Amino acid sequence: MKRTEFSQPSTGWRHRIRQLFQRRLGLLLLGTALAAIVISCGTLTRTVMAPPAIPGATFIGTVGCAECHEELVRDFRTASHARLMARGPNAMSTGCESCHGAGSLHSESGGDVSLIVNPEKSPNVCFDCHLDIRGSFNLPHRHPVPEQLTCTDCHDPHKGDAIMGGGTALFSQNETCLECHNAQRGPHVFEHEAMREGCTTCHLPHGSVNPRMLAQRNATLCLKCHFQEQRSAGRVLIGGFDHTTFLPQGTCWSAGCHEAVHGSQVNSSLRY
Ligand code: HEC
Ligand code: HEC
Ligand code: HEC
Ligand code: HEC
Ligand code: HEC
Ligand code: HEC
Ligand code: HEC
After folding, report:
1. What is the pLDDT of the chain when averaged over all its residues?
2. Coil vs helix vs strand at 242
3. How many helices (H) and strands (E) does the chain have?
4. CA of 39 to the centre of ligand 3 (A)
5. How far apart are CA 149 and CA 207, in angstroms?
């Protein structure tokens, strides 16, 4: 995580507040802005971003949601975003309100849904803090968010590690991806051990400049793990096999070579 992406220099923050004055948006909105969300993490404390604005509403803290959303609040203790805190002398966890906006009016009304933000439909609430992620979803090859998918298809905002099935360590963490991509699910007679490292070893889950959202567009993708030996007379060995004439013909997974890169039912060299 590139923390700097979320941070705002204090001058930028003051500028923002000044702008609010200039636009005469009123004291209530200013109150919302001042209760900026900061992230406290060890010795690091910095302003992150203003949560979604709900005119007239003030923060009541995560405890204020517990009365009616008991289960969500209970589980939230384990959530990545539970570390988000409001600034100020009465600092309290505003975890819920960092995504849903200030909750006083929603709460006082007994749960009027028009007085709270539900980020289900639009990823903009997430993008407010995760600017770099917005960029990934503008790349030519990307998951279709928001057209067909939402951030919460892969991320749980309410419980545990926000990255579901990130696929960084164990095969089982690929489950989130395999829910929609059944064709890549094994078992295969000839497994490709790379799958244990996770889908994200080869795919950038948000978006990429490369087709199929691949992390690299050529043999580099595979040579991260497969040793390439340069022999005399310009011969190239990969996996102990002479690849000199193959490499100019295309990628490792095209041109009739290792096309069954996720695993093969018929061929130990990962072919169809
Ligand atoms: C990281 C952003 C984020 C945080 C933090 C967050 N939510 Fe949500 N919440 C969402 C998104 C996105 C949805 C819509 C998608 C979904 O239902 O998962 C949602 C949906 C909801 C819903 C309606 C659907 C349901 O599950 O009942 C409620 C109620 C809710 N959140 C309450 C809370 C409470 C209470 C907290 C704090 C304990 C909280 N949220 C923290 C992003 C967040
Ligand atoms: C006094 C009770 C009460 C309190 C306190 C309360 N809520 Fe709700 N909330 C409700 C009710 C009732 C609903 C509507 C549930 C439904 O229609 O399924 C609701 C719905 C929601 C929804 C879904 C909105 C939608 O578009 O469907 C979100 C998000 C939400 N609450 C967040 C929060 C957050 C965040 C807090 C704390 C800041 C909070 N609520 C505090 C009663 C409350
Ligand atoms: C108020 C700012 C804010 C909002 C809004 C927000 N996030 Fe975050 N999010 C953060 C911060 C800050 C971190 C880093 C937490 C840390 O590293 O300690 C984070 C971390 C994450 C992570 C990585 C978690 C991990 O365990 O490494 C994911 C995934 C994520 N957010 C997704 C989302 C999604 C999806 C939404 C919208 C539903 C969202 N965020 C809304 C501030 C925000
Ligand atoms: C198709 C599944 C998928 C969707 C949809 C998705 N993500 Fe992710 N996201 C992932 C995976 C997997 C990782 C972990 C990447 C890794 O381990 O290399 C991740 C990592 C993250 C992180 C933390 C690491 C980083 O790159 O900063 C954030 C923040 C995040 N996602 C935000 C979002 C937001 C916001 C949306 C919606 C606009 C979204 N994601 C939609 C799968 C997804
Ligand atoms: C909620 C369903 C869903 C989840 C979960 C999901 N995807 Fe996707 N994925 C899609 C959709 C929809 C598309 C676009 C399909 C299309 O345009 O043909 C897509 C496209 C792709 C593509 C490009 C396919 C192509 O033919 O160009 C890759 C690669 C991919 N996803 C990998 C992943 C990985 C890796 C994960 C886990 C981090 C994941 N997906 C999680 C629904 C999902
Ligand atoms: C060793 C690298 C690697 C790993 C790990 C990997 N993929 Fe792929 N994936 C590829 C390559 C290379 C292609 C492009 C194949 C092509 O264009 O013929 C691809 C293509 C795809 C496609 C497009 C349809 C297709 O089969 O051509 C989807 C969907 C996909 N991968 C999903 C996944 C999922 C889900 C996982 C994790 C379970 C995963 N991949 C793990 C390398 C990998
Ligand atoms: C994360 C590491 C990793 C990546 C990336 C990776 N592989 Fe592998 N691959 C392995 C491991 C480990 C094995 C099993 C041990 C071996 O045979 O080297 C293997 C085995 C193979 C085999 C079977 C070798 C044999 O003779 O049985 C082929 C073919 C193969 N990989 C092709 C590819 C291709 C093509 C790519 C790129 C799309 C790729 N690999 C990317 C780790 C990886």
Report:
1. 78
2. strand
3. 10, 8
4. 10
5. 13
